[in-house]
Amino acid sequence: MVGLISFLVVFLSVSSSTASTCRCFPSDPCWPSPQQWDDFNTTINGKLIATTPLGSVCHTNNTFTTYSESACASLRSIWDYPSTHYTTSSSPMAPWFTNFSCNPFLADIAPCAIGPLVRYAVNATSATDYQQTLNFTQTHNIRLVIRNTGHDYLGKSTGAGALALWTHHLKDIEIISNYTSASYTGPAIKVGAGVQFFEAMAAAHEENFVLVGGNCQSVGYAGGYTQGGGHGQLASKFGLAADQVLEWEVVTADGELLTASPAQNADLYWALCGGGGGTYGVVLSMTSKVYPELRTTTANLTFSAEGVTRSVYWGVVERFVKGLLPLTDAGGVAIWEATNASFTVTPVTIPGGTKRQLEAWLAPTIKLLRGYNMSYTYNIGEFPTFWESYAAMNPMSNVTEAQIGGRMIPRTTVENNSSALIAAFRTIADYGAAISGVSMNASRNAVPDNAVNPAWRDIAIDIVLGTTFDYYNRTADLQNQRLMTNVLIPLLTALTPDSGAYLNEADIHQPNWQWVFYRNNYATLSAIKDKYDPNQVFYARTGVGSERWTELKDGRLCQVNRSSI
Ligand SMILES: Cc1cc2nc3c(=O)[nH]c(=O)nc-3n(C[C@H](O)[C@H](O)[C@H](O)COP(=O)(O)OP(=O)(O)OC[C@H]3O[C@@H](n4cnc5c(N)ncnc54)[C@H](O)[C@@H]3O)c2cc1C
Ligand SMILES: *[C@@H]1O[C@H](CO)[C@@H](O)[C@H](O)[C@H]1NC(C)=O
Ligand SMILES: *[C@@H]1O[C@H](CO)[C@@H](O)[C@H](O)[C@H]1NC(C)=O
Ligand SMILES: *[C@@H]1O[C@H](CO)[C@@H](O)[C@H](O)[C@H]1NC(C)=O
Ligand SMILES: *[C@@H]1O[C@H](CO)[C@@H](O)[C@H](O)[C@H]1NC(C)=O
Ligand SMILES: *[C@@H]1O[C@H](CO)[C@@H](O)[C@H](O)[C@H]1NC(C)=O
Ligand SMILES: *[C@@H]1O[C@H](CO)[C@@H](O)[C@H](O)[C@H]1NC(C)=O
Ligand SMILES: *[C@@H]1O[C@H](CO)[C@@H](O)[C@H](O)[C@H]1NC(C)=O
Ligand SMILES: *[C@@H]1O[C@H](CO)[C@@H](O)[C@H](O)[C@H]1NC(C)=O
Ligand SMILES: *[C@@H]1O[C@H](CO)[C@@H](O)[C@H](O)[C@H]1NC(C)=O
Ligand SMILES: *[C@@H]1O[C@H](CO)[C@@H](O)[C@H](O)[C@H]1NC(C)=O
Ligand SMILES: *[C@@H]1O[C@H](CO)[C@@H](O)[C@H](O)[C@H]1NC(C)=O
Ligand SMILES: *[C@@H]1O[C@H](CO)[C@@H](O)[C@H](O)[C@H]1NC(C)=O
């Protein structure tokens, strides 16, 4: 029955592919002519970029650029670095979304088609660029994608046959020493949509402030990260990134430039603080709270499963994970990863805490490691500032070469059911998956009313599972995706039936995603989406309202025609 319905949906959409139920696709008669693209380019002062797939230098039969063995070798050597992708207007970091097209790791004779990538991008630097782009995509019924860094795991910042509004070069940063509103008086930072953590953190640090940012230095501060919630090493101390926002400047689908704050367009403000990127409007700038710099204690720890029984190894993991609860209550955060071979903590941090405090919390774990004579490495340091701690103890993040799924683990599960939780981890690790956790407490402080998934407020750990991505074997990748959806995530869901998943770090095939990613905020978020985007200009996979659309096999985006089902 389900199969029949989805067949009908696809059939109906295909049979009317050039009608208004689908976005205009490059091969369609409605696609703008070269002259129309040129005219548009003139309107936006030459900021239109036609996509050249990044991997095209690796393929002999491509229409974009010349094949070069040396350029290809050098591209392969830097493929893992986020900057290889975020400096381009089209390359998504999550490898699945390149659909094996122009894959630099395949043979040089393999095909190189633009396929799943955006066709064009506007290198936007102003509200006017946003407005012109929104006008053009609506005039020509073209799929619009908002692209910032391209970090998104769920493919929300890429799309076939789309025009990307590329926000990367909106780099303005201003430190506001005394922001004043009815709800907050104090220091703040105002950033353009393209500002990344490493830039925002550096600007704040110059004035002796810190801000809530993520682990990966290159994620977009005002983009999908904060709009989707945003965790990081300061998130127990100060709350999630979405909890810090004071106001947004947003351009809505009809081209209007609005301020969204608790005092103006408060519903849009509420939605943008945690309700997911790419959905309600295009953010031009964000203003968020910053805090005075603070002394920070940080440690890293690794240990190996070698030489001890599996129960001993997982017992130590259990001790460590359970022992983090009081640490997160004191404002600490731990970022860790377990496989069936080793456990790594990079790092565990107490902003504002002392070395003695952190040592005391880690002591029971270290004692077990010594007692079992397990091999481990352990470094601890107390730094005068968070900035120095972050620089010393936070390894540069690479592109995640994994297919992921996620689940938030409530505190009750860690406190009262940790043996079942560890048993689930053990089973998951035996399937060859990595388990990464961010142990934190996102509700130490008064929690503002915003669209952050309410499950965040009960959690002790945000879990992300990863299976390897194979650049050479689509069958293996599909198998791993099914494993994630049907086996691995359900092992955690069974233990945490009332929880959810972090919409930025989750399985693209998550069943019932509306509930799992947004919980009881979904209906309100849908209403806000329809108020500010009544014609459904903004679409992002698993974004609010996206169930109205379906992507056909070639990537064409079509409306699901409910009345005809
Ligand atoms: C290596 C790595 C490390 C990560 N570490 C963390 C972490 O520590 N903490 C954490 O919480 N998350 C983390 N993430 C997840 C991260 O929050 C998401 O990938 C997020 O979507 C990135 O946002 P972006 O704007 O940089 O990326 P993009 O992929 O460019 O955009 C993501 C989404 O936001 C939308 N968007 C972007 N800019 C705008 C805008 N101006 N207006 C409206 N919509 C916009 C896009 O349309 C898309 O839907 C990590 C991801 C990776 C790959
Ligand atoms: C847009 O115009 C600029 C400046 O003339 C040019 O460099 C660029 O190639 C044009 N873009 C496209 C897609 O033609
Ligand atoms: C080159 O690619 C085109 C389409 O992209 C295809 O039709 C053609 O067969 C390819 N040629 C070779 C030699 O592979
Ligand atoms: C993805 O690849 C498959 C197999 O080559 C192809 O049929 C499909 O059209 C591609 N989809 C997109 C969006 O490029
Ligand atoms: C985008 O615009 C910025 C200036 O705003 C410029 O420095 C950069 O080179 C442009 N990028 C591309 C790919 O055109
Ligand atoms: C685009 O701009 C033109 C000129 O200002 C205007 O007439 C038209 O209504 C706009 N179209 C859309 C879809 O916003
Ligand atoms: C910030 O502004 C408020 C209200 O205008 C004022 O009361 C306060 O003293 C100012 N604080 C600083 C540090 O300047
Ligand atoms: C601990 O391990 C070391 C080196 O692996 C070994 O020499 C030593 O005998 C072990 N000690 C115990 C008590 O097992
Ligand atoms: C732990 O921190 C030390 C000191 O900063 C560093 O040299 C080491 O590489 C780090 N280890 C890991 C696994 O990150
Ligand atoms: C990132 O990738 C580089 C090159 O592949 C590698 O040397 C480095 O160890 C990786 N860093 C991390 C944190 O995995
Ligand atoms: C754990 O169980 C105890 C006893 O049933 C209960 O009092 C406590 O509230 C539970 N802890 C959590 C976090 O639910
Ligand atoms: C870990 O799991 C992998 C995959 O199932 C398996 O090949 C490996 O032997 C396991 N290692 C340990 C230490 O159990
Ligand atoms: C691809 O992966 C599948 C599933 O794991 C495996 O059966 C197949 O042999 C692999 N193909 C190649 C060419 O390695």
UniProtKB/TrEMBL annotation:
Keywords: Oxidoreductase, Signal. The keyword Signal applies. Pfam families: BBE, FAD_binding_4. Residues 113-293 form the FAD-binding PCMH-type domain. This is FAD binding domain protein. PROSITE patterns: FAD_PCMH. The lineage of its organism: Eukaryota, Fungi, Dikarya, Ascomycota, Pezizomycotina. InterPro entries: BBE (IPR012951), FAD-bd_PCMH (IPR016166), FAD-bd_PCMH-like_sf (IPR036318), FAD-bd_PCMH_sub2 (IPR016169), FAD-linked_Oxidoreductases_BP (IPR050432), Oxid_FAD_bind_N (IPR006094). Belongs to the oxygen-dependent FAD-linked oxidoreductase family. Residues 1-19 form the signal peptide. The keyword Oxidoreductase applies. GO terms for molecular function: FAD binding; oxidoreductase activity.
